[in-house]
Design brief:
two-stranded antiparallel sheet, 213 residues, single chain, alpha+beta, disordered N terminus
């Protein structure tokens, strides 16, 4: 997983996806990326958070997904103890611009929440693909360490319902959201697309993403 320190510190910078994915990167102006999102009505029928197995140790290096994100996003060398337990570091929660030095104050946010992913197409995926989505370390925008307060305020809301409290983070957040949906082929409904289009109109950004394998 690539570090998104530069993007977090600047709040407005566009983080880069990993070059390791097999599919070539796509680059689109933000407004065009919003227009490229497939459309479908949402349905939460049958959703369970347990359908997305997460915080696994996919590469068997003793660090689960949460710890991998904390290590990658710390602005300083983190303190890592036995069993890859991160006990200290320094993180900038770009949603609200708050600096955190104890990992207990952080949640690892799924950029597109698990329930929203289910609504947007993941209900038809295999359990293995849902697990890959929930632990996506190959695109640094998929998972982000943020204050527990902002993550819980966001909950499962899309950008029509919630935006980061730091106004300077709105363009980065919109790029990250759209890139994640495009990466995983997730859909949007009409209300969500309208909100994203309004946000894109105020941002001079491009979206770079690699389709998930």
């Amino acid at each position: 997983m690539l570090s998104r320190v530069a993007a977090v510190a600047a709040l407005l910078a566009l983080p880069l996806t990993s070059p390791a994915a097999a599919a070539p990167a796509e680059v689109l102006p933000l407004a065009d990326a919003v227009a490229a999102l497939p459309a479908a009505a949402e349905s939460r029928d049958g959703y369970s958070r347990d359908a997305f197995r997460h915080w696994v140790d996919a590469d068997r290096d003793s660090c689960n997904t949460r710890m991998e994100v904390l290590i990658a996003e710390s602005l300083v060398e983190p303190t890592v103890g036995a069993d890859c337990r991160v006990t200290a570091g320094e993180w900038l929660s770009y949603y609200d611009g708050v600096t955190v030095t104890t990992p207990g104050g952080l949640d690892i946010d799924h950029m597109v929440p698990l329930a929203e992913a289910w609504d947007s197409g993941a209900s038809a995926w295999t359990p293995e693909r849902r697990e890959a989505y929930a632990n996506d370390l190959d695109a640094d925008r998929s998972l982000v360490a943020v204050t527990a307060r902002t993550n819980r305020s966001k909950a499962d809301k899309d950008p029509a319902e919630w935006l980061p409290p730091a106004a300077g983070a709105h363009c980065t957040y919109t790029v990250d959201w759209v890139a994640t949906k495009l990466r995983w082929g997730l859909t949007v409904d009409d209300t969500e697309r309208a909100a994203l289009a309004d946000l894109a109109a105020g941002c001079d950004d491009t979206v770079e993403y690699e389709p998930a394998p």
